[in-house]
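chain and backbone:
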Amino acid sequence: MTITVRAQQGDTLDALCHRHLRATAAVTEQALALNPGLAELGPVLPEGHAVTLPEAAPQPERNDTINLWS
């Protein structure tokens, strides 16, 4: 499933992915594949440009541990 969003003034593809999907890892590359020619527009997207974004995959929960005695 995909969603279509419109770029706001000064938006980059990373910013759109982060704002709408709360992720950028691997999502940005998928969005480029879904939008042929998007990279040719440059790093800052034109205001109002429609961009198709992929459905975000659930992120695994991080379980960081601290070793007090190394």
